[in-house]
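Recap quiz, item 2
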Amino acid sequence: MPRFIALAAAALAAHALTAQEPKKDEFPPIPTVDLKRSAPVEYGADIAPIFEKKCFVCHTGNVAADNGKYDMSTYEKVMKGGAKRGAKVVVPGKSGDSFLFLSCARQVKPMMPPKTEEPLTSRELSLVKLWIDEGAKAPTTVRVKEKVVVNLPPALVKPVRAVAVAPDGKTVAASRGNQIHVFEAKTEPADKKGGPEKKDWVFARTLLDPQLKTPDGKAAKAAHVSLVESLAFSPDGKTLASGSFQELTLWDFEKGEPRARVGGFADKVTAVAYSADGKYLGTGGGAPTEDGEVRVFTADGKPFSEVKSGHSDTVFGLAFSPDGKLLATCGADKFVKVWELSAEAGKAAKFVKSFEGHTHHVMGVGWTPDGKKIASCGADNFVKVWDYEKGEKLRDMQGHQKQVTNLFFVGKTPQFLTASGDATVRMWNADNGGNVRQFPGAPDFVYAVSASPDGAVVASGCEDGVLRVYNGTSGALVKAALPPDAEPKKDEPKTEPKKK
Ligand code: HEC
Protein backbone atom coordinates (compact mmCIF):
# COMPACT_ATOMS: atom_id res chain seq x y z
CA MET A 1 0.00 0.00 0.00
CA PRO A 2 1.49 3.41 -0.91
CA ARG A 3 2.72 5.28 2.11
CA PHE A 4 0.25 8.21 1.95
CA ILE A 5 -2.72 5.86 1.87
CA ALA A 6 -1.28 3.93 4.76
CA LEU A 7 -0.93 7.15 6.72
CA ALA A 8 -4.46 8.26 5.83
CA ALA A 9 -5.83 4.89 6.86
CA ALA A 10 -3.89 5.04 10.08
CA ALA A 11 -5.24 8.53 10.78
CA LEU A 12 -8.82 7.36 10.19
CA ALA A 13 -8.29 4.34 12.36
CA ALA A 14 -6.81 6.51 15.11
CA HIS A 15 -9.83 8.80 14.88
CA ALA A 16 -12.28 5.95 15.21
CA LEU A 17 -10.40 4.64 18.19
CA THR A 18 -10.29 7.84 20.22
CA ALA A 19 -12.67 6.53 22.83
CA GLN A 20 -10.72 3.30 23.29
CA GLU A 21 -7.12 2.37 23.95
CA PRO A 22 -5.06 3.33 20.91
CA LYS A 23 -3.90 0.18 19.14
CA LYS A 24 -0.20 -0.42 19.64
CA ASP A 25 1.99 -0.75 16.57
CA GLU A 26 3.43 -4.26 16.68
CA PHE A 27 6.75 -3.11 15.24
CA PRO A 28 7.26 0.53 16.22
CA PRO A 29 10.13 2.47 14.63
CA ILE A 30 13.44 1.97 16.37
CA PRO A 31 14.65 5.24 17.91
CA THR A 32 18.16 6.54 17.27
CA VAL A 33 20.34 7.92 20.03
CA ASP A 34 23.05 10.55 20.19
CA LEU A 35 26.27 8.53 20.05
CA LYS A 36 28.43 11.45 21.26
CA ARG A 37 31.34 10.36 19.07
CA SER A 38 34.34 12.48 18.31
CA ALA A 39 35.80 10.17 15.65
CA PRO A 40 33.92 9.68 12.37
CA VAL A 41 32.17 6.37 11.85
CA GLU A 42 34.48 3.92 10.07
CA TYR A 43 32.84 1.33 7.82
CA GLY A 44 35.25 -1.54 8.49
CA ALA A 45 35.26 -1.22 12.26
CA ASP A 46 31.76 0.10 12.99
CA ILE A 47 29.39 -0.89 10.21
CA ALA A 48 30.62 -4.09 8.57
CA PRO A 49 30.34 -6.10 11.82
CA ILE A 50 26.67 -5.07 12.18
CA PHE A 51 25.85 -6.09 8.61
CA GLU A 52 27.79 -9.28 9.07
CA LYS A 53 25.83 -10.20 12.16
CA LYS A 54 22.35 -9.12 11.14
CA CYS A 55 22.17 -9.06 7.33
CA PHE A 56 24.67 -11.51 5.82
CA VAL A 57 22.44 -14.52 6.42
CA CYS A 58 20.24 -13.30 3.59
CA HIS A 59 22.34 -10.76 1.74
CA THR A 60 25.61 -12.31 0.69
CA GLY A 61 26.91 -13.57 -2.62
CA ASN A 62 24.78 -15.22 -5.24
CA VAL A 63 23.28 -17.32 -2.49
CA ALA A 64 21.31 -14.42 -1.01
CA ALA A 65 17.87 -15.21 0.36
CA ASP A 66 16.41 -12.30 -1.60
CA ASN A 67 17.50 -14.14 -4.76
CA GLY A 68 20.77 -12.32 -5.10
CA LYS A 69 19.08 -8.97 -5.52
CA TYR A 70 21.10 -7.21 -2.84
CA ASP A 71 24.58 -8.43 -2.04
CA MET A 72 26.01 -6.81 1.07
CA SER A 73 29.29 -8.72 1.24
CA THR A 74 31.52 -5.72 0.42
CA TYR A 75 31.33 -1.94 0.82
CA GLU A 76 31.12 -1.44 -2.95
CA LYS A 77 28.20 -3.83 -3.20
CA VAL A 78 26.39 -2.28 -0.25
CA MET A 79 26.66 1.11 -2.01
CA LYS A 80 25.51 -0.24 -5.36
CA GLY A 81 22.19 -1.20 -3.80
CA GLY A 82 19.77 -3.94 -4.75
CA ALA A 83 18.02 -4.75 -8.00
CA LYS A 84 14.88 -2.94 -6.94
CA ARG A 85 16.04 0.29 -5.37
CA GLY A 86 19.65 0.65 -6.53
CA ALA A 87 21.24 3.94 -5.48
CA LYS A 88 18.24 4.78 -3.27
CA VAL A 89 19.41 2.16 -0.82
CA VAL A 90 22.24 4.35 0.46
CA VAL A 91 22.14 8.08 -0.39
CA PRO A 92 25.37 9.51 1.03
CA GLY A 93 24.67 12.36 3.45
CA LYS A 94 20.96 11.65 3.59
CA SER A 95 19.90 8.87 5.92
CA GLY A 96 16.30 10.08 5.62
CA ASP A 97 16.34 9.24 1.90
CA SER A 98 18.21 5.95 2.28
CA PHE A 99 16.05 2.83 2.14
CA LEU A 100 18.67 0.92 4.07
CA PHE A 101 18.37 3.21 7.07
CA LEU A 102 14.60 3.61 6.83
CA SER A 103 13.98 -0.13 6.57
CA CYS A 104 16.32 -0.87 9.49
CA ALA A 105 14.65 1.87 11.54
CA ARG A 106 11.29 0.22 10.75
CA GLN A 107 10.04 3.49 9.29
CA VAL A 108 9.16 1.87 5.96
CA LYS A 109 8.23 -1.58 4.74
CA PRO A 110 9.63 -4.08 4.15
CA MET A 111 11.49 -3.63 7.39
CA MET A 112 15.02 -5.00 7.59
CA PRO A 113 15.91 -7.42 8.85
CA PRO A 114 12.43 -8.98 8.48
CA LYS A 115 10.33 -9.36 11.62
CA THR A 116 11.42 -12.97 12.19
CA GLU A 117 14.99 -11.83 12.78
CA GLU A 118 16.64 -9.86 15.56
CA PRO A 119 16.35 -6.12 14.79
CA LEU A 120 19.19 -3.63 15.02
CA THR A 121 19.69 -2.12 18.46
CA SER A 122 19.28 1.62 18.87
CA ARG A 123 23.03 1.96 19.01
CA GLU A 124 23.61 -0.07 15.84
CA LEU A 125 20.92 1.87 14.03
CA SER A 126 22.42 5.15 15.18
CA LEU A 127 25.82 4.10 13.87
CA VAL A 128 24.32 3.25 10.48
CA LYS A 129 22.51 6.61 10.42
CA LEU A 130 25.62 8.55 11.35
CA TRP A 131 27.72 6.65 8.80
CA ILE A 132 25.28 7.60 6.01
CA ASP A 133 24.96 11.22 7.21
CA GLU A 134 28.74 11.54 7.30
CA GLY A 135 28.80 10.62 3.62
CA ALA A 136 28.70 6.80 3.70
CA LYS A 137 32.47 6.71 3.40
CA ALA A 138 34.46 3.71 2.29
CA PRO A 139 36.40 1.66 4.83
CA THR A 140 39.83 2.96 5.77
CA THR A 141 40.83 -0.15 7.66
CA VAL A 142 41.43 -3.58 6.22
CA ARG A 143 40.95 -6.66 8.27
CA VAL A 144 44.47 -7.94 8.68
CA LYS A 145 44.70 -11.69 8.76
CA GLU A 146 47.12 -13.07 11.25
CA LYS A 147 50.12 -14.62 9.61
CA VAL A 148 50.16 -18.32 10.31
CA VAL A 149 53.30 -20.31 10.64
CA VAL A 150 52.77 -24.00 10.23
CA ASN A 151 54.78 -26.15 12.52
CA LEU A 152 54.62 -29.77 13.43
CA PRO A 153 52.33 -30.19 16.39
CA PRO A 154 54.18 -30.84 19.63
CA ALA A 155 54.95 -34.51 20.17
CA LEU A 156 52.47 -34.77 23.00
CA VAL A 157 49.50 -33.42 21.08
CA LYS A 158 48.08 -36.58 19.60
CA PRO A 159 44.31 -36.47 19.79
CA VAL A 160 42.33 -38.68 17.46
CA ARG A 161 40.34 -35.95 15.76
CA ALA A 162 39.01 -38.06 12.93
CA VAL A 163 38.01 -41.68 12.27
CA ALA A 164 36.53 -43.47 9.29
CA VAL A 165 35.32 -47.06 9.11
CA ALA A 166 35.78 -48.48 5.59
CA PRO A 167 32.59 -49.40 3.72
CA ASP A 168 33.42 -53.12 4.01
CA GLY A 169 33.62 -52.80 7.80
CA LYS A 170 37.01 -54.55 7.86
CA THR A 171 39.32 -51.56 8.12
CA VAL A 172 39.36 -48.41 10.23
CA ALA A 173 41.44 -45.33 9.50
CA ALA A 174 42.13 -43.07 12.46
CA SER A 175 44.10 -39.88 12.76
CA ARG A 176 46.46 -39.34 15.67
CA GLY A 177 48.05 -35.89 15.74
CA ASN A 178 49.32 -35.41 12.19
CA GLN A 179 49.39 -39.15 11.47
CA ILE A 180 46.86 -41.50 9.94
CA HIS A 181 46.93 -45.11 11.08
CA VAL A 182 45.08 -48.05 9.61
CA PHE A 183 43.75 -50.92 11.69
CA GLU A 184 42.29 -54.16 10.38
CA ALA A 185 39.73 -56.60 11.76
CA LYS A 186 41.05 -59.98 12.73
CA THR A 187 38.79 -62.80 13.72
CA GLU A 188 40.23 -65.48 15.96
CA PRO A 189 38.45 -68.75 15.42
CA ALA A 190 36.50 -70.32 18.21
CA ASP A 191 38.83 -71.92 20.75
CA LYS A 192 38.98 -75.65 21.56
CA LYS A 193 36.62 -75.31 24.49
CA GLY A 194 33.95 -74.20 22.05
CA GLY A 195 34.02 -70.53 23.09
CA PRO A 196 32.79 -67.99 20.58
CA GLU A 197 35.11 -66.61 17.93
CA LYS A 198 36.95 -63.50 19.02
CA LYS A 199 37.15 -60.24 17.13
CA ASP A 200 40.26 -58.15 17.36
CA TRP A 201 41.62 -55.10 15.60
CA VAL A 202 45.29 -54.97 14.70
CA PHE A 203 47.54 -52.21 13.48
CA ALA A 204 48.15 -52.55 9.73
CA ARG A 205 50.04 -49.48 8.54
CA THR A 206 50.62 -45.73 8.71
CA LEU A 207 49.86 -43.48 5.76
CA LEU A 208 52.87 -41.28 5.00
CA ASP A 209 53.11 -38.56 2.39
CA PRO A 210 56.65 -38.85 0.99
CA GLN A 211 56.53 -35.30 -0.33
CA LEU A 212 55.70 -33.80 3.01
CA LYS A 213 58.32 -31.46 4.43
CA THR A 214 58.43 -29.47 7.63
CA PRO A 215 58.95 -25.68 7.23
CA ASP A 216 62.73 -26.21 7.57
CA GLY A 217 62.82 -28.73 4.72
CA LYS A 218 62.98 -32.03 6.60
CA ALA A 219 60.82 -35.02 5.75
CA ALA A 220 57.80 -34.79 8.00
CA LYS A 221 57.10 -38.55 8.18
CA ALA A 222 53.41 -37.89 8.60
CA ALA A 223 50.20 -37.66 6.63
CA HIS A 224 49.97 -33.90 7.05
CA VAL A 225 52.12 -31.23 8.60
CA SER A 226 49.39 -30.17 11.02
CA LEU A 227 46.74 -32.14 12.89
CA VAL A 228 44.50 -34.30 10.77
CA GLU A 229 41.03 -32.87 11.35
CA SER A 230 38.78 -34.96 9.12
CA LEU A 231 38.63 -38.32 7.33
CA ALA A 232 36.14 -39.94 4.95
CA PHE A 233 36.15 -43.01 2.74
CA SER A 234 34.78 -42.89 -0.79
CA PRO A 235 31.73 -45.20 -1.00
CA ASP A 236 33.78 -47.79 -2.94
CA GLY A 237 36.44 -47.74 -0.20
CA LYS A 238 39.22 -47.07 -2.71
CA THR A 239 39.99 -43.52 -1.63
CA LEU A 240 40.45 -42.02 1.80
CA ALA A 241 40.14 -38.23 2.00
CA SER A 242 41.96 -36.46 4.84
CA GLY A 243 41.68 -32.80 5.78
CA SER A 244 44.21 -30.75 7.72
CA PHE A 245 45.34 -27.15 8.01
CA GLN A 246 44.86 -25.58 4.56
CA GLU A 247 45.04 -28.90 2.71
CA LEU A 248 43.17 -31.97 1.63
CA THR A 249 44.79 -35.23 0.54
CA LEU A 250 43.12 -38.02 -1.40
CA TRP A 251 44.85 -41.31 -0.65
CA ASP A 252 44.88 -44.35 -2.85
CA PHE A 253 43.89 -46.54 0.06
CA GLU A 254 45.14 -49.82 -1.36
CA LYS A 255 48.57 -48.46 -2.18
CA GLY A 256 48.63 -46.24 0.89
CA GLU A 257 49.93 -43.25 -1.01
CA PRO A 258 48.58 -39.82 -1.97
CA ARG A 259 46.70 -39.76 -5.25
CA ALA A 260 45.90 -36.05 -5.16
CA ARG A 261 46.68 -33.10 -2.94
CA VAL A 262 44.49 -30.03 -2.85
CA GLY A 263 45.70 -26.82 -1.23
CA GLY A 264 44.55 -23.26 -0.94
CA PHE A 265 42.08 -23.64 1.88
CA ALA A 266 41.63 -20.64 4.17
CA ASP A 267 42.22 -22.63 7.35
CA LYS A 268 41.61 -26.11 8.74
CA VAL A 269 39.58 -28.52 6.65
CA THR A 270 37.34 -29.53 9.54
CA ALA A 271 34.97 -31.78 7.62
CA VAL A 272 34.98 -33.98 4.51
CA ALA A 273 32.06 -35.92 3.06
CA TYR A 274 31.39 -37.89 -0.11
CA SER A 275 28.17 -37.93 -2.08
CA ALA A 276 26.44 -41.34 -2.04
CA ASP A 277 27.45 -42.04 -5.66
CA GLY A 278 31.06 -41.17 -4.86
CA LYS A 279 31.28 -38.61 -7.65
CA TYR A 280 31.69 -35.60 -5.40
CA LEU A 281 33.49 -34.69 -2.25
CA GLY A 282 32.66 -31.70 -0.08
CA THR A 283 34.87 -29.94 2.45
CA GLY A 284 34.05 -27.58 5.27
CA GLY A 285 36.28 -25.20 7.19
CA GLY A 286 37.31 -21.57 7.33
CA ALA A 287 39.09 -19.39 9.85
CA PRO A 288 37.29 -18.62 13.13
CA THR A 289 35.09 -15.50 12.95
CA GLU A 290 35.70 -15.14 9.24
CA ASP A 291 33.73 -16.57 6.35
CA GLY A 292 33.05 -20.26 6.61
CA GLU A 293 34.44 -22.24 3.72
CA VAL A 294 32.52 -24.90 1.79
CA ARG A 295 34.00 -26.38 -1.36
CA VAL A 296 32.91 -29.24 -3.59
CA PHE A 297 35.34 -31.31 -5.64
CA THR A 298 35.04 -34.10 -8.15
CA ALA A 299 36.28 -37.49 -6.94
CA ASP A 300 39.73 -36.83 -8.41
CA GLY A 301 40.12 -33.56 -6.48
CA LYS A 302 39.20 -31.05 -9.18
CA PRO A 303 37.25 -27.99 -7.97
CA PHE A 304 33.62 -28.35 -8.94
CA SER A 305 31.57 -25.86 -6.98
CA GLU A 306 31.48 -23.89 -3.78
CA VAL A 307 29.18 -22.15 -1.36
CA LYS A 308 30.11 -18.49 -1.25
CA SER A 309 29.89 -16.65 2.07
CA GLY A 310 27.36 -19.18 3.24
CA HIS A 311 28.34 -19.10 6.89
CA SER A 312 29.80 -16.16 8.79
CA ASP A 313 32.15 -18.40 10.80
CA THR A 314 33.97 -21.76 10.60
CA VAL A 315 32.00 -24.62 9.03
CA PHE A 316 32.24 -27.81 11.11
CA GLY A 317 30.08 -30.27 9.24
CA LEU A 318 28.51 -31.07 5.92
CA ALA A 319 26.53 -33.86 4.28
CA PHE A 320 25.16 -34.49 0.80
CA SER A 321 21.47 -35.38 0.59
CA PRO A 322 20.94 -39.05 -0.35
CA ASP A 323 20.05 -38.06 -3.94
CA GLY A 324 23.20 -35.92 -4.15
CA LYS A 325 21.33 -32.78 -5.18
CA LEU A 326 21.55 -30.89 -1.91
CA LEU A 327 24.29 -30.15 0.53
CA ALA A 328 23.61 -29.49 4.22
CA THR A 329 26.25 -27.48 6.08
CA CYS A 330 26.61 -26.27 9.66
CA GLY A 331 29.02 -24.17 11.63
CA ALA A 332 30.09 -21.84 14.37
CA ASP A 333 27.47 -19.29 13.29
CA LYS A 334 24.82 -21.63 14.88
CA PHE A 335 23.13 -22.32 11.56
CA VAL A 336 22.34 -25.42 9.61
CA LYS A 337 21.90 -24.45 5.96
CA VAL A 338 20.94 -26.34 2.84
CA TRP A 339 22.25 -25.58 -0.64
CA GLU A 340 21.25 -26.78 -4.06
CA LEU A 341 24.19 -28.00 -6.09
CA SER A 342 24.32 -27.16 -9.76
CA ALA A 343 24.93 -30.07 -12.12
CA GLU A 344 27.30 -27.79 -14.00
CA ALA A 345 30.89 -27.33 -12.89
CA GLY A 346 31.96 -23.86 -11.78
CA LYS A 347 28.55 -22.73 -10.60
CA ALA A 348 28.15 -21.78 -6.96
CA ALA A 349 25.58 -23.69 -4.94
CA LYS A 350 22.25 -21.92 -4.38
CA PHE A 351 20.89 -21.22 -0.91
CA VAL A 352 17.70 -23.16 -0.22
CA LYS A 353 16.89 -22.74 3.45
CA SER A 354 18.35 -22.47 6.90
CA PHE A 355 17.51 -24.11 10.21
CA GLU A 356 17.95 -22.04 13.30
CA GLY A 357 17.69 -23.23 16.88
CA HIS A 358 21.09 -24.30 18.14
CA THR A 359 22.38 -21.79 20.64
CA HIS A 360 26.06 -22.58 20.09
CA HIS A 361 28.35 -23.91 17.33
CA VAL A 362 26.69 -26.58 15.21
CA MET A 363 29.29 -29.34 14.95
CA GLY A 364 27.74 -32.00 12.77
CA VAL A 365 24.92 -32.62 10.33
CA GLY A 366 23.44 -35.53 8.37
CA TRP A 367 20.37 -36.70 6.40
CA THR A 368 18.01 -39.59 6.98
CA PRO A 369 18.21 -42.00 4.00
CA ASP A 370 14.80 -40.87 2.70
CA GLY A 371 16.11 -37.29 2.54
CA LYS A 372 13.18 -36.10 4.63
CA LYS A 373 14.93 -35.26 7.85
CA ILE A 374 18.14 -33.59 8.90
CA ALA A 375 19.89 -34.29 12.19
CA SER A 376 22.34 -31.84 13.72
CA CYS A 377 24.40 -31.67 16.88
CA GLY A 378 26.02 -28.79 18.67
CA ALA A 379 28.21 -27.31 21.33
CA ASP A 380 24.96 -26.51 23.16
CA ASN A 381 24.87 -30.27 24.09
CA PHE A 382 21.81 -30.77 21.91
CA VAL A 383 21.01 -33.15 19.12
CA LYS A 384 18.18 -31.86 16.94
CA VAL A 385 16.10 -33.40 14.19
CA TRP A 386 14.50 -31.19 11.55
CA ASP A 387 11.78 -31.72 8.97
CA TYR A 388 13.52 -30.74 5.77
CA GLU A 389 10.43 -29.90 3.65
CA LYS A 390 8.66 -27.90 6.34
CA GLY A 391 11.89 -26.31 7.54
CA GLU A 392 10.82 -26.98 11.13
CA LYS A 393 12.39 -28.62 14.11
CA LEU A 394 10.85 -31.99 14.91
CA ARG A 395 12.61 -32.75 18.16
CA ASP A 396 15.36 -31.98 20.61
CA MET A 397 17.29 -34.97 21.82
CA GLN A 398 19.02 -34.59 25.14
CA GLY A 399 21.44 -36.87 26.85
CA HIS A 400 24.93 -35.66 26.19
CA GLN A 401 26.34 -33.73 29.13
CA LYS A 402 28.86 -31.74 27.10
CA GLN A 403 29.23 -30.44 23.59
CA VAL A 404 28.28 -32.85 20.84
CA THR A 405 31.23 -32.86 18.48
CA ASN A 406 30.38 -35.08 15.56
CA LEU A 407 27.46 -36.86 13.91
CA PHE A 408 27.43 -39.88 11.59
CA PHE A 409 24.50 -41.69 9.95
CA VAL A 410 24.72 -45.48 9.96
CA GLY A 411 24.40 -46.69 6.36
CA LYS A 412 20.90 -46.40 4.96
CA THR A 413 19.17 -46.45 8.33
CA PRO A 414 17.49 -43.69 10.33
CA GLN A 415 20.04 -44.37 13.06
CA PHE A 416 22.93 -42.06 13.68
CA LEU A 417 25.83 -41.75 16.08
CA THR A 418 27.06 -38.75 17.99
CA ALA A 419 30.36 -38.16 19.78
CA SER A 420 30.65 -35.84 22.73
CA GLY A 421 32.95 -34.01 25.08
CA ASP A 422 31.25 -36.00 27.83
CA ALA A 423 33.44 -38.98 26.80
CA THR A 424 30.61 -41.01 25.30
CA VAL A 425 29.24 -41.97 21.93
CA ARG A 426 25.49 -42.43 21.55
CA MET A 427 23.30 -43.97 18.91
CA TRP A 428 19.95 -42.35 18.16
CA ASN A 429 16.97 -42.95 15.94
CA ALA A 430 15.99 -39.90 13.89
CA ASP A 431 12.52 -41.29 13.14
CA ASN A 432 11.33 -41.75 16.70
CA GLY A 433 13.82 -39.73 18.72
CA GLY A 434 15.02 -42.72 20.70
CA ASN A 435 18.43 -43.05 22.30
CA VAL A 436 19.20 -46.52 20.99
CA ARG A 437 22.50 -47.30 22.63
CA GLN A 438 25.48 -45.88 24.47
CA PHE A 439 29.15 -46.55 23.88
CA PRO A 440 31.06 -45.68 27.03
CA GLY A 441 34.66 -46.38 27.93
CA ALA A 442 36.53 -43.30 26.80
CA PRO A 443 38.26 -41.28 29.52
CA ASP A 444 38.20 -37.92 27.78
CA PHE A 445 36.69 -35.68 25.11
CA VAL A 446 35.51 -37.68 22.07
CA TYR A 447 35.93 -35.82 18.77
CA ALA A 448 34.89 -38.21 16.09
CA VAL A 449 32.68 -41.16 15.32
CA SER A 450 32.12 -43.41 12.32
CA ALA A 451 30.49 -46.76 11.57
CA SER A 452 30.29 -49.50 8.96
CA PRO A 453 27.19 -49.27 6.73
CA ASP A 454 25.56 -52.19 8.59
CA GLY A 455 26.25 -50.60 11.96
CA ALA A 456 28.18 -53.65 13.21
CA VAL A 457 31.41 -51.69 13.66
CA VAL A 458 31.49 -48.35 15.47
CA ALA A 459 34.73 -46.40 15.94
CA SER A 460 35.48 -43.28 17.94
CA GLY A 461 38.42 -40.92 18.28
CA CYS A 462 39.39 -39.42 21.62
CA GLU A 463 41.58 -36.70 23.10
CA ASP A 464 43.69 -39.40 24.79
CA GLY A 465 45.03 -40.48 21.37
CA VAL A 466 43.23 -43.82 21.37
CA LEU A 467 40.98 -45.21 18.66
CA ARG A 468 38.13 -47.20 20.19
CA VAL A 469 36.34 -49.84 18.18
CA TYR A 470 32.96 -51.05 19.43
CA ASN A 471 30.54 -53.81 18.61
CA GLY A 472 27.82 -51.60 17.16
CA THR A 473 25.07 -54.06 18.01
CA SER A 474 25.86 -54.63 21.67
CA GLY A 475 27.71 -51.43 22.52
CA ALA A 476 30.65 -53.45 23.89
CA LEU A 477 34.16 -52.06 23.54
CA VAL A 478 36.12 -54.44 21.31
CA LYS A 479 39.47 -52.66 21.17
CA ALA A 480 41.24 -49.57 22.43
CA ALA A 481 43.81 -49.33 19.65
CA LEU A 482 47.13 -47.55 19.47
CA PRO A 483 49.81 -47.66 16.78
CA PRO A 484 52.87 -49.75 17.85
CA ASP A 485 55.06 -46.72 18.56
CA ALA A 486 52.52 -45.47 21.08
CA GLU A 487 51.82 -48.73 22.88
CA PRO A 488 52.90 -48.67 26.49
CA LYS A 489 56.13 -50.68 26.81
CA LYS A 490 55.52 -54.35 27.44
CA ASP A 491 57.84 -57.20 28.29
CA GLU A 492 57.30 -59.12 25.12
CA PRO A 493 59.01 -57.80 22.00
CA LYS A 494 57.02 -55.43 19.84
CA THR A 495 55.82 -56.57 16.45
CA GLU A 496 57.12 -54.52 13.55
CA PRO A 497 54.47 -52.73 11.52
CA LYS A 498 53.68 -54.58 8.33
CA LYS A 499 55.48 -52.97 5.39
CA LYS A 500 53.37 -52.23 2.34
C1 HEC B 1 15.91 -13.11 6.79
C2 HEC B 1 16.42 -12.53 5.59
C3 HEC B 1 16.87 -11.08 5.59
C4 HEC B 1 17.69 -10.45 6.51
C5 HEC B 1 18.33 -11.02 7.77
C6 HEC B 1 17.87 -9.12 6.00
N1 HEC B 1 17.18 -8.95 4.83
FE1 HEC B 1 17.17 -7.28 3.66
N2 HEC B 1 15.96 -8.22 2.31
C7 HEC B 1 15.44 -9.49 2.45
C8 HEC B 1 14.52 -9.74 1.36
C9 HEC B 1 13.74 -11.03 1.14
C10 HEC B 1 14.51 -8.57 0.55
C11 HEC B 1 13.68 -8.28 -0.68
C12 HEC B 1 12.40 -7.60 -0.19
C13 HEC B 1 11.85 -6.54 -1.12
O1 HEC B 1 12.63 -5.72 -1.61
O2 HEC B 1 10.65 -6.53 -1.28
C14 HEC B 1 15.41 -7.64 1.19
C15 HEC B 1 15.69 -6.39 0.69
C16 HEC B 1 16.56 -5.47 1.28
C17 HEC B 1 16.89 -4.18 0.75
C18 HEC B 1 16.35 -3.60 -0.52
C19 HEC B 1 17.29 -3.75 -1.69
C20 HEC B 1 16.71 -3.17 -2.95
O3 HEC B 1 17.42 -2.55 -3.73
O4 HEC B 1 15.51 -3.33 -3.13
C21 HEC B 1 17.75 -3.58 1.63
C22 HEC B 1 18.38 -2.21 1.52
C23 HEC B 1 17.97 -4.52 2.70
N3 HEC B 1 17.24 -5.67 2.46
C24 HEC B 1 18.77 -4.26 3.79
C25 HEC B 1 18.99 -5.14 4.82
C26 HEC B 1 19.84 -4.86 5.94
C27 HEC B 1 20.65 -3.58 6.14
C28 HEC B 1 19.80 -5.94 6.75
C29 HEC B 1 20.51 -6.13 8.07
C30 HEC B 1 20.43 -5.09 9.04
C31 HEC B 1 18.91 -6.92 6.12
N4 HEC B 1 18.44 -6.39 4.96
C32 HEC B 1 18.63 -8.17 6.65
C33 HEC B 1 15.76 -10.40 3.43
C34 HEC B 1 16.55 -10.13 4.54
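Helices lie at 3-16, 43-54, 75-80, 99-104, 122-133.
Residues 51, 54-55, 57-59, 65-66, 70, 81-86, 89, 99-100, 103-104, 110, 112-114, 117, 120 surround heme C (CB under 6 Å).
End of item.
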